[in-house]
Amino acid sequence: MLGPGKADLLEGIAETGSIAAAGRRMGMSYKRAWSLVETMNAAFREPLVLRSRGGAQGGGAVLTDTGRTVLDHYRRIQQRAAQAVQKDVAAITALMHGGEGNGT
């Protein structure tokens, strides 16, 4: 449904107003970026991204209210997950070459 790459793509679309530009920032083709957007739009009751075709003004894309809500929730999940595993990550890091401390 949604993972780090798709969330980054949504964030890029929100920041650039363009599926192509967001994809380029991530090193992917427009075709791949558009395919991911179509997949996300199909997975949710309402689309996450709306695009307008080119023309005199050029095309563009925007996150819908649902898209912004989904992205906000996903980023909170990531933040909470990172906080939940912080001690374990520190413990593993301490066991690595060049690790510091004892992880507690």
UniProtKB/TrEMBL annotation:
| One example GO MF annotation | DNA-binding transcription factor activity
List residues of the HTH lysR-type domain. Answer: 10-68
Q: InterPro entries per the record?
A: LysR_HTH_N, Molybdate_resp_trans_reg, WH-like_DNA-bd_sf, WH_DNA-bd_sf
Source taxon at top rank: Bacteria
A Pfam family this chain is assigned to: HTH_1
The name of this protein is ModE family transcriptional regulator
**UniProt source species:** Meridianimarinicoccus roseus
